[in-house]
Amino acid sequence: LNKHSYLINLGLLFCLSVRWGAAQSRFLCSSSPEESKSRPSMLRHLTTKLKATGPITVAEYMREVLTNPVTGYYVRNNMLGPDGDFITSPEISQIFGELLGVWIISEWMGAGRPKQLQLVELGPGKGSLAGDVLRVLSQLRSVLGEASVSLHLVEVSPALSLLQAQNLTRSCSQEADSEDEPVYRRGETAAGLPVSWYRRLDDVPAGFSIFVAHEFFDALPIHKFQRTQKGWREVMVDIDPDKPDKLRFVVAPSPTLASSTLVQADERRDHVEVCAEGGVIVQQLSKRITEEGGAALIADYGHDGTKTDTFRGFKGHQLHDVLSSPGSADLTADVDFSYLRRMAGGGVACLGPVSQRTFLKNMGIDTRMQVLLRSCVDPTTRKQLISSYDMLTNPIKMGERFHFFSLLHHSRLAKPKKTEGLKLDKKKSPAPLPVAGFTDEKIWQ
Ligand code: SAH
């Protein structure tokens, strides 16, 4: 048996059984004009706070603007899609989530096919990625055998959790009775898989898990630091003294706790952004993977510790000033993968970042496209398939801007050991399956 044959078979099975769905329906985004209007209450809330406490860190500003339980951007908006503020790869093409589904199964196989598989998604948006992954899992049910699969979604936004429930459970979900429950919503997919919603990763039960985070880390709060003649200083947000309803950036006159702990001693840039919350989440992922097995796949736009000022806003698909009409626009910053690698520590193996183009090509996106195009005669759908492929993989579109990064249990990459001792036992332990997407060993041939 060739060591890759499982993966190849997997690809063939899947090619035969999945068909192109109603692509356009993804693009019917339902954010009402009422919702997309900016509301002044976030600015009022912030100026009241700033008057009482003085300047706040950029991280605190970002946290308030995005996830404040009453007025936060993610809490009350449906921001994804052509009518929203931005569009993401899983919303552009179903192929994206399908290939991630294949990655998940191949990592589950690489881990020795554990009996339980928890699929955990951080920041699932509309639930489209999870839906595409689940479709692949159900097409490949025969590969998964008796393994029991469950879906766990970490989502701060009650509004988005409802949308995810509608998409994934055909409205068969129920909210928890009390706000203190770690699982705040429960449901079941049409195929009978249990789905649970949590506010924080900490609340997800222990067990063999594959974690996926797409465009999640870029939404977490960053601290910003500026090199000055007196050393590193934190950038803060304050009220503009000339215009009391406007905000501005100021540089803290003396060190803050963050500026004295989060900047590397040998840092060479003059301005850095550090996402401490993202660092904590990666530490938690790393600990879980070390203790329970599994893997994490993090996909986002980002850099490897080289960029400086990447903090920006998006509104109606246009760049938006991060300090104006807070709460009406998405705020985001590039993910620093070198920081995530550092925070992951030695307990896990890290792979990547590799560009989205490389990852998707290694996962066999070209073969998948050919299969879909062969079975698709409608010219409009064909055109749409080709343009979404181009959007995902073209280096000047999303192909080189987005990167894939993975945390793996060390055993996944362990070199085969020669068995010593007994003469009868001349077998080597089998070489680990290649980690799909990160090496150019093709899943589909
Ligand atoms: N992964 C989706 C959505 C990206 S938008 C996609 O690619 O289409 C970011 C998602 O993360 C949203 O679902 C948002 O509500 C969620 N989110 C943002 N901050 C979060 C936090 N601190 N904890 C949990 N979820 C968060």
From TrEMBL:
Belongs to the NDUFAF7 family. It catalyses: L-arginyl-[protein] + 2 S-adenosyl-L-methionine = N(omega),N(omega)'-dimethyl-L-arginyl-[protein] + 2 S-adenosyl-L-homocysteine + 2 H(+). Keywords: Methyltransferase, Mitochondrion, Signal, Transferase, Transit peptide. This is Protein arginine methyltransferase NDUFAF7. Gene3D superfamilies: 3.40.50.12710. InterPro entries: NDUFAF7, NDUFAF7_sf, SAM-dependent_MTases_sf. SUPFAM superfamilies: S-adenosyl-L-methionine-dependent methyltransferases. The keyword Amino-acid biosynthesis does not apply. One of its GO terms (cellular component) is mitochondrion. It is found in: Mitochondrion. Its main location: mitochondrion. Arginine methyltransferase involved in the assembly or stability of mitochondrial NADH:ubiquinone oxidoreductase complex (complex I). Acts by mediating symmetric dimethylation of 'Arg-118' of NDUFS2 after it assembles into the complex I, stabilizing the early intermediate complex. Its EC number is 2.1.1.320. GO terms for molecular function: protein-arginine omega-N symmetric methyltransferase activity. It comes from Amphiprion ocellaris (Clown anemonefish). The gene is NDUFAF7. GO terms for biological process: methylation; mitochondrial respiratory chain complex I assembly. Coiled coil: none annotated.
